[in-house]
Write a structure and sequence with these properties.
2 copies of one chain form a homodimer. Chain A is of the alpha/beta class. Chain A contains 13 helices and 13 strands. Chain A has helices spanning 21-34, 36-39, 49-59, 72-83, 98-106, 123-132, 154-167, 190-193, 221-235, 240-251, 255-280, 308-314, 350-362, and strands at 7-9, 66-69, 89-94, 110-117, 120-121, 137-140, 170-174, 198-203, 215-218, 285-287, 294-298, 317-319, 340-344. Chain A has an 8-stranded mixed β-sheet, with helices on both faces. Chain A has a 3-stranded antiparallel β-sheet with strand order 10-11-13, covered by helices on one side. A two-stranded parallel ribbon of chain A has the order 1-12. The longest helix of chain A is centred in the C-terminal third of the chain and has 26 residues, at 255-280. Chains A and B meet through helix 1, helix 2, helix 4, helix 5 and helix 9 of A and helix 1, helix 2, helix 4, helix 5 and helix 9 of B.
């Protein structure tokens, strides 16, 4: 690797070698031939029925509590347009998923960032914020968070749900990375602890393919009906051949083996990123997750973070500006987006990771 | 056929026998295998590049003037959210496509219905409306209109475009039925006469499959860029395998033969509907188009139109309430939605058509 090779540490996308192309091609063909009158027709507004049933089984709910749409961001947009009244607050972790923040704002929310700690959202700061106002909902990525990598502890999961019950707000748990755990044991889903105020969202983008755009949400049936109606008004019917291909993929029992294959592919990259960050950026506060797509660092206050993205570009390192992940960019000490660096590791090789983190260190 | 067989004359959907299932299955498989790193990945926000190129070639524009999304209703929603300022007017034909009217309203428009005549929108009434206000845009279905079946004459096409230039408003021409012409010659597209204020929208729903949800728009590049950015904010990337399958279908030269097959399938149904309406409903003002999915009738003022949908249901005939197609339900004489009946003929057999129209006649 020479210094002139560009190293891209921006979006959390799977690498092409992650896609089970042959298997998916066969699933498309089979799904179309088996059920063309449904798969190629208008309809199935809450999602392709066999896939709803598969997901209902997995999450221990009824099919009426499942809605499948054209990717989870589209569903977040629809849920937001239904739940957010103009001027309402939406609470997010700070930092949080930049596109979610943008969606909530476009749908009329004031986004309030609650600082993220190594074990998830700060309960103390959440309580302070709740004394001021009750949000339309709290948006969390509890497992291997995007962008920081943090995982919400069991104790905090319980406390968040208690607060939701006490103050009366909904919690969106967005869990696209959850199945990509490289060490340790799963913590329970928020919905497994207490589903009453929980909307669970996820997708097959990280487990199969983002281009398929198959995302889903699980919530009480009344909300599913409202969001389904908004979806029908917006896009008439969801795209069905992709949902049918995913249903066929699950029916054939291919998802588990594919997730295992992905873990084998990503584990060395995860280890390389964790090692490089510890070695090269010893002064930074690092989030080293047990799974997912992202390591992240908060650079020390005395680090030279000014125009970091621009200076990185000059030496062939592509970074995402940290401030994009901050719902409250001016919120003070913890909220210094300029010092926050997200380091996605799945779409780069261990060699690229070593070189990339070395370049980052050279700038500070 | 017995009286107890339900006859459904509601939505304009293709029948299952219209779907080229085998060919599409093969196209999915081929498209995935050929280009998985693109088709299964995030990206291609303005639409799958090879399909944009195909469409650009067909419409004589550059690929930068083409945007492909998850069905044309989704694109109408995005265009509306960009073009409609709160309280702005949108002009539509009256009657017009019910879902489009609903979309424009949800995005903040006051919809103003301009009466439809047998040769398209009333120019006189359009001019009167323009003296009062200039709309964000005028929405037209110029070929075999949904719901009435009318086709806009060449003279009126020219005049609409003159008015658009004079007053400064955009015209959306929505042309999903255009290629399904059963007799006569195509009139030029509005964009072929003068593209400067025209947004062309269409889809493959009526030519291939609605479940695929592949719709597109053609407009100047600056608008494409704005709507693409809104699409990226809303659904991140479009669903790509379906777009890639359509591109492969076109590349293999299969669309023309499929359209010919559809015309062979639909022509007897179209003739049956035209004949039955003339014979059974002699007092009604009938729109008999030269193509598309719909015949329609405006019942005479002295016909018994009260609770027509409910009474039809009692004798096994399912109709869409006419008022849904009227942007101005209280607009007066031409706008009497209760007397308007849309009669889609593609998803029913000639026998069902005969029987259905006889049942309708028996109610009046």
């Amino acid at each position: 690797m020479t210094t002139s090779d560009k190293i891209v540490l921006t979006r959390g996308v799977p690498p092409p070698e992650a896609f089970p192309t042959e298997e998916l091609g066969a699933c498309f063909d089979a799904a179309l031939r088996e059920n063309p009158a449904v798969v190629l027709q208008y309809g199935q507004q809450p999602g392709y029925a066999p896939l709803r049933e598969e997901l209902a089984g997995e999450y221990g709910v009824s099919p009426g509590e499942v809605l499948i749409g054209n990717g989870s961001l589209q569903l977040q947009d629809l849920v937001s347009s239904y739940l957010i009244r103009p001027g309402a607050a939406v609470f997010t972790e700070q930092p949080s998923y930049d596109r979610a923040i943008k969606t909530f704002r476009r749908r009329g929310a004031r986004t309030v960032g609650i600082p993220l700690e190594e074990d998830g959202i700060s309960i103390e700061r959440l309580e302070t914020a709740l004394e001021r106002e009750v949000p339309a909902f709290l948006y969390l990525v509890p497992d291997f968070q995007n962008p920081a990598g943090a995982t919400l502890s069991l104790e905090k999961r319980r406390r968040v749900l208690e607060l939701a019950g006490e103050y009366g707000f909904r919690v969106i748990e967005d869990i696209p990375y959850r199945k990509l755990r490289y060490e340790g044991e799963d913590l329970p889903l928020l919905r497994e602890i207490d589903p009453s105020n929980v909307i669970t969202m996820s997708s097959f983008s990280k487990l199969l393919s983002p281009g398929m755009r198959v995302g889903f949400m699980i919530s009480p049936e009344d909300l599913i009906k409202e969001v389904t109606a908004l979806g029908e008004d917006t896009y008439l019917s969801p795209v069905l051949p992709t949902q049918a291909a995913v249903a066929e993929y699950l029916r054939r029992g291919l998802l588990g083996p594919n997730v295992d294959r992905l873990k084998d592919l990503y584990t060395p990259r995860w280890k390389a990123m964790a090692g490089a960050v510890s070695r090269e950026l010893p002064g930074a506060q690092a989030f080293i997750p047990s799974g997912g797509f992202f390591v992240s660092v908060m650079l020390p206050e005395d680090a030279n973070a000014q125009d970091l993205v621009g200076r990185a570009k000059d030496i062939g390192l592509v970074l995402t500006p940290g401030a994009a992940f901050f719902a409250d960019p001016d919120e003070g000490e913890e909220a210094d987006g300029d010092r926050f660096v997200r380091l996605p590791f799945c779409a780069v090789t261990p060699d690229q990771i070593e070189e990339g983190v070395q370049r980052l260190a050279s700038l500070l």
